[in-house]
Amino acid sequence: MPLEKLTQERVERAAPGEFLCDERVTGLMLLCGKRVKTWVAQREVKDLLPDPLTGKYKRKTARVTLGHFPAMSVQEARDRAKDELRRMELGHNPHAARQKDLTVRAAIEQYIAGAHDLRPRTLTGYQYTLDRYLATIADIPLSDLGNKPTIVRNLHAELTKERGKATANGAMRTISAAYNGMLALAMDLPPNPVTRPGVIRWHHLQPRARRIAEDGFPAWGRALQRVDNPIRRAFRLFLLLAGQRNEAARTMLWADVDWHKAKIHYPSPKGGEAAAFDLPISPPVQRVLEFAREFSTAEWAFPGSPWVWPAHSETGHIAESKEPRHQDLLNPHALRRTFISEGYEVAPNKYVSYIANHRVHDSITDEYFQPTVESVRRALTAIDNAILERIGTPLDQLLGPAVLKNGQFEARPPNGPKVE
């Protein structure tokens, strides 16, 4: 179809049935009907889902309605067309909202596949939620979900009754994240039904506040000594004395422990590689690590294991950090909360936040806060000494002997990365 320079005058005299193409903005067209003249932008885009037989993405012509003339002038149509064509060039697919195979399941799986900035555990949680809690709506087209918000309202109420308030809220957040991800590609979708005002009555959950009680440290120390597995005893002590997150602690590698500089490198904590940091080792933490090191070197334990906390699990390291038979030992997050709470009493708050890998730059002045390794080590040592003093039991006694019980080390762990 021939291109021409579209002007206000030319568009005004365009007759019904004409199809005008602008030479200035390739892809901008004017469709002239009997009563309405409509601006559209058109180009080829990659299909949203791959061909089920070949696995390849086909390219199809996509068209977006921009507005109507004369409400939208020629110049306004050009500006809008440039934006829409650019979005399509970057991957926006206008057909997405109209594809019947874009179901709730497909949207969540597409979101998971493209969320490279999220941690594997978070993505696993999304998949688990999809499989376990969203099965009843998984095959509903996403556009239908947007047009019928009662679907998510009823599901939220059902999950609240059967699975609890936290699960119901979490399932809705999974739907919302995937829906917003598709909105970025398909603006023709209805508004997000989860976040639409009045649809969901969100549950206000009380923040968890459990920690070792003010007078509970001696009892916690006695409970720790009753744990048979010496690796799990040491791991529990590490959680309390280092203040790190559960997953970051469980997946520690000996390759990231620098004995010479007395520090631990966390290459990908919460926040990903951008949040990587080094934690100086205090004398108490060093003693715990020295105790744990024997189990990765001794022939009777886990020789050659690259993991700081080896175990007979599929991963080769401690996979479940809870102690079902010792509820009084608390969960890892409660120990981290205890560390931070005790830390605020004996060390500057910014140092406690730094050790816990929390944000420390809240103001312009904070941008100048660049603590030295030794200053962080002093703060961590002060916190650890205060905690151990509260427990009232020597550290070596808390660690206990490396005694084998119940055939704990009869088999070697699965092969993992080699120790560097």
Report on the architecture of this protein:
The chain has 3 domains: about 5-90, Double Stranded RNA Binding Domain, CATH 3.30.160.390; about 105-185; about 215-400, hpI Integrase, Chain A (Orthogonal Bundle). It is built from 15 helices and 8 strands. The protein has helices at about 10, 75-90, 105-115, 120-135, 140-145, 150-165, 165-185, 215-225, 230-240, 245-250, 285-295, 330-345, 350-355, 375-390, 395-400; strands at about 5, 20, 30, 35-45, 60-70, 255-260, 265, 275-280. A hairpin with a 4-residue loop joins β3 (about 30) and β4. α6 packs antiparallel against α7, α9 (about 230-240) runs antiparallel to α11 (about 285-295) and α12 packs across α14. The protein is elongated. Mean pLDDT is about 85; it is low at about 410-420.
Give helix and strand order, one letter per element, not per position: EHEEEEHHHHHHHHHEEEHHHHH
Broad structural category: alpha+beta
Kindly estimate the percentage of residues that lie in beta strands according to DSSP. 5-15%
Please describe the biggest sheet, giving its number of strands, its sense, and whether it closes into a barrel.
5 strands, mixed
Query: Can you tell me the CATH class of the largest domain?
Result: Mainly Alpha
Helix content: 40-55%
Kindly report the average pLDDT value. Answer: 86
Measure the end-to-end span: 65 Å
Write the layout of secondary structure elements.
Layout: E1 3-4, H1 8-12, E2 19-22, E3 28-32, E4 37-46, E5 59-69, H2 74-89, H3 104-114, H4 120-133, H5 142-147, H6 150-163, H7 165-183, H8 217-225, H9 230-242, H10 246-250, E6 257-258, E7 263-266, E8 277-280, H11 283-293, H12 332-346, H13 349-355, H14 373-391, H15 395-399
Parallel strand pairs: 1-2
Antiparallel strand pairs: 2-3, 3-4, 4-5, 6-7, 7-8
